[in-house]
Amino acid sequence: MLDGGEGQALFEEMNRQPLRCRVQVILPIEKPYDYLLPYGPDGTQIELEPGQIVMVPVGRRILPGVVWDGAADENVPLKKLKGIVGVSEVPPLREELRKFVEWVANYTLSPQGSVLKMALSVPQALENLVGQKLYCLVVAGENGEADAGKLRLTSARQKVIDVVTDSGGWTLADLAREAGVSSSVVKGLEKLGLIEGYFEAPDFFFPSPELDVKGPELSPDQKVAADDLAIRVQDRTFSTVVLDGVTGSGKTEVYFEAVEAAMKEGRQALVLLPEIALSSQWLDRFKKRFGVAPAEWHSDLTPALRRKTWRAVAAGKAPVVVGARSALMLPYRDLGLIIVDEEHEGSFKQEDGVYYHARDMAVVRAKGCDCPIVLASATPALETMVNVQNGRYERLILPGRHGGAGMPDVELIDLRFDKPERLQSGPGWLSQALRGAIRQTLEAGEQAMLFLNRRGYAPLTLCRTCGHRLQCPHCTAWLVEHRRFRRLQCHHCGFSAALPENCPSCEAEDSLVPCGPGVERIVEEVKLLFPEANVALMASDTMTSPAATKEMVDRIQNREVNLLVGTQVVAKGYHFPYLTLVGVVDADLGLFGGDLRAAERTFQLLHQVAGRAGRAEHKGRVLLQTSDPKHPVMQTLKEGDRDKFLEIEAETRARGHLPPFGRLAAVIVSGPDEGELDNFCASLARSIPQIDGTQILGPAPAPLALLRGKFRRRFLIMSKKSIAPQGIARSWLGQLKAPSRIKVVVDVDPYSFL
Ligand code: ADP
Ligand code: ZN
Fold this sequence. Notes:
CATH superfamily of the largest domain: P-loop containing nucleotide triphosphate hydrolases
CATH architecture of the largest domain: 3-Layer(aba) Sandwich
Largest sheet: 7 strands, parallel
Strand content: 15-25%
Radius of gyration: 29 Å
Bound molecules: adenosine-5'-diphosphate, zinc ion
Structural class: alpha/beta
Number of domains: 6
């Protein structure tokens, strides 16, 4: 006979509905779906906690998802629910990251599933590896283990040792692939006892940096800044600090101290760099300072290293992560510091898939992690400086260059008066003044750099006979000649074609002429003018891998090159002690195009390029070729007065109610059929809501009205600072369903207006 209580319990058990939970899958889906919890071997359901990574059926596919917060809807009939089919051994995504995913989705108007997909970007990392044999280095000790450092190893074996020294926990196949050797080499090392295999839960890790190694002696200003940051790290509270100092003032040295403080706290540090593929010098410095390499995160990682890194980050076994913007989405176990270096850089804005600005989202993430975030720059964005003025951000200033090196003198060359002379082969682009300065520099045994932010040989090819311009068939863009390959290229879609002999329009022979210069053409010019110089070209399409970049940087550092021609890749934080002259071929180039940040970006870029000159004991000189020397950008660059530039720029923006004094969201509508697109845009235009303090402009053909074969139209939502454009976009665009071939993208806080 059961007593009352037990009977009641049994009754409830028999009548119990199967348990369900919400799972957010990594598809472009707004909200989580409901699923049944999985059953264990004893037939009862396994309880799961929010954040656990699971495999679930969606349609006919099985996809990863995350158990999400909140209760499932008990009213959905059971027969409509599918069951969870697998549970990953990976630690659950922490609440902090789940909240962050929700926040980003909400702010950027992106489906939550798309944002979550960025956090779970490595499906292989979610697979269960228990039971697989994993390899790591045997630490040589007193027990008579062999010591790899003392043995002479073949280069194949050494490669394997190098890989396991950098981090542990590799499957046989992954390790062999990463080292570029056959698996028998790995097994040979295991026999020697230099590496060992184990069957435990995988232990992916990056070695801990050496702490308490003395960095360089900091100057008093640097020390004040470094101590301030270290205290913030120890306080474990959120704050945003702008580290404001000219190039060469030691910002990196200072934030290294903060990184060290985070590690001493046992927390992780994330350093976001604008272009990780170009940061070989940064990595070298880190290794020199801390004795080990940090975990890197960018698109060039091998799949095996991606998996390892993701897992190590999640397990808290990657003390420092340095990466491109996507590193912001990793599942840190305990993030204690975020650094955004060169915070003003446009490449932190992602413009594809989820449109987000990694700097701005990093501030949100730091808040969720209760940790400080440092925005470092010599030319902080206007947005950032306005946040300093209104007290939301704090600021630490490093006033001068380390070691007392002076700032370079900036001179303007007025191209209207000092017109470049023609060369025998065609037009020239370098003025007498610039040519003279290059000659002097080379004669003094120093290095010169010419900057032009345009790849290829010529941005436009034109027919002398009929005026026809060679255009991309898929985009509203001219084809750029790349003479090294004798090809024409579209820089928007990648279309490429051989350079035709005759004009494709009038068929005239020998009538096509290149118009305007790209870097390749400048190389041609300086080789003619300075035949004795060792010239090198540095552009994103000539430096195809981190290794190629490193080789080039080494050649410049070793002074095998004395005349460097480059696009903006040369502006990126390199330190070349013998570089004393920087010549900007066309300083006005970035000022056109109707982009609200054109002036700001030009100032930042030219300031940064100028900062490459004279960083050691040699004084630097910068010559800007311009046709508009009265322009505020040119004047303030010449005066070296950044804050005056920011003031002028702030006034202009405030007058136009433009960011950061007002808000913008761009709506880009695209599709393959122009008529259908215009019809849909017309209906959108008819339903534009009238709301005080906001204005919606458009539709207008996008400047790139045709891109990759799709026609494009743009609307622009402008609102007062106090009104969020997201809500307006949501209710306005929510009324009308786009035809299936038409894509509507909302870009909140747009940086590109093409
Ligand atoms: P920033 O990041 O502001 O451009 P860096 O940190 O790269 O400046 O410093 C510029 C150069 O000066 C680097 O080579 C760096 O090693 C050196 N440097 C900066 N501060 C010090 C210091 N206190 N002692 C020795 N070298 C320093
Ligand atoms: Zn194209």
